[in-house]
């Protein structure tokens, strides 16, 4: 069973090394698609499932034809947090909110304080003789907590305290009524206390204002001929008399910004004094369309002028999709993201900003919620039910999908293999060399560099979107054309490790296929591996340690000093009889893992496969220490949660079939989207395709009448982290995911359109980074 895997790897390696091998590499795929639409050069040059060890299926239900990801809106991915909260863009306000639990607690406390203040003021008024003055005092007191009023009275006396409370009430009424009277009379919006040489007392007044008298502010001013120090309490009111909510310092600010602040001391980069200091970070929802996560973060860096390390996220999301995920950044930098949406060029929106206590970490998520539209489905309702029910009960093989390996002619695991061999010259060559199937601009710059070999000059003409290539060129420009290791290490850390991890993934896929061919998926067998404690499955793999933020550099050496957090044991024949196949794991090769003893997947079998690549399973250490992999364990089967599906009809092949978060924010829900898709009338694009609408005029009635009615499957499910939705759909369709995604169909219409769109969105050597969560 292992021999085919070795032969497959040898064939794939020869493809990467020579242009002649390219034709041989795609031969089997071309034969498998005989009778279908002729593939474009871009499609033919792609990495295919067979090349990365994906060959088997988990169930025997009858598959059907369908087109996946024809439009990016067909693939909606929403992150599921560790608290099992599905992330969804719900507002695009610039306000930074408190967590819901704090809002509820604050509202309850405010209600209690307000009631106490009204009662206390009423009692005070009654004691003084009642009348209209006491009623006004009750209203004024209700604007500030009783505790705040009492504290201010103790500091400045009752008369001045009442004046300050009245200023709070006046400010709130002015905001509600958009009043403009006395806008130019700044004295009407401030109270200057008597000069006081007691700095401690002045400090106490400032604290009291910050704690209890929002939205007022305070500062120290010089008064009188002697220029003695006094406290000024004021409301920052603009000349226009208009109000807006501002994120700066977490309080209301006038239109006109910081130029209208009373003095420079009020313009500060520090977080709001009125938000609990425990909230050291701000979390927001990043919604993106048809662009990858790294590109979206780069856009945020461009707009905010913040380094990429400031932004933390739990995982990357697929490029050709509508995705929503959480991102965090330090609270002290939160002012930079206010107004970002006005400056974004395309395909990205942020919202739902909220204070939080901790930053996100890679892998800190439960999984992803997927809502997918499969177009041009060729199956009756009974067949769809059988397939969806089978997927829900028998699951699918937990392969690493093609996104792990990139989709261009140079697979990322070939680059990873070169790095593990310490062959950095080959690694950089694979990243920079010309390749089939790219758009003309990319091919041209690669060919030019191949001739000139001038890294500094190449940086002038390599496009900005070729991130990996430019990073390698920058390394060469800085250290010289012979310093290959420095060129590799100039890549972002996550990208460097992505290459070597993809080689691990290739080995895991190949060994999983070998295990299934030999032993099937009906039951566990003697020699299989299972986790001793399934709860440790959520523990981060040791290989992920170097992928943490720069602040965690002290943890980088734990891989060589700590036992693997996931303990495993080898099943006996008796244990195998009572063990579920869903509990069986296989290792990704590394220095800190144990291997199964089952036939076909033992350590010797792993060693034979890796030996064909020049690697030794016993010696996984590399000269560059960061590429020494500890290894990990992965279940061979996965099962989606909360599956729901629906069969719908539509006419317009270019229409959206399901609404994105942004559509729903604009009031365009599922019913409206499907109505337009069925009507055949052209729809206005709202997302990243707004400038690429296929028609500039409405279709005629005759054209609409001639359009055939099509069938689509809308399916939704949740997958745990590090699980690929494309592999789930592959099991459902019983069809290679590259065929479904590229639309290799008899109609020809969809194949051409999908191919053109993918070619236009190609992302360089790094490839698409993943529907892996």
Helical amount among residues, as a percent range? 25-40%
Overall average residue pLDDT: 76
Catalogue the unreliable spans.
1-39, 134-142, 178-184, 238-273, 541-562, 687-696, 742-773
Whole-angstrom Rg? 31 Å
Briefly note the structural class of the backbone: alpha+beta
End-to-end separation in angstroms reads 31 Å
Strand content: 5-15%
Total of helices = 25
Task: Note the main attributes of this structure.
single chain; 773 residues; alpha+beta; nine-stranded mixed sheet; globular
Please specify the SSE layout and strand pairing:
Blueprint: H1 2-17, H2 20-32, H3 41-44, E1 65-68, E2 75-80, H4 100-127, H5 132-141, H6 146-156, H7 158-177, E3 190-192, H8 199-212, E4 217-223, E5 228-234, E6 243-245, E7 252-254, E8 281-289, H9 293-304, E9 312-313, E10 322-330, E11 348-356, E12 367-378, H10 381-394, E13 396-397, H11 412-420, H12 424-432, H13 440-452, H14 455-461, H15 467-479, H16 484-489, H17 493-519, E14 529-531, E15 568-570, H18 573-577, E16 584-588, H19 603-611, E17 632-635, E18 637-638, E19 641-650, H20 661-665, H21 670-679, H22 701-706, E20 710-720, H23 725-733, H24 737-742, H25 749-760
Parallel strand pairs: 2-10
Antiparallel strand pairs: 1-12, 2-12, 3-5, 4-5, 6-7, 8-10, 8-11, 9-10, 12-20, 13-18, 14-15, 14-16, 16-17, 19-20
Helix pairs in contact: 1-2, 4-5, 5-7, 6-7, 6-8, 10-23, 11-12, 11-17, 14-15
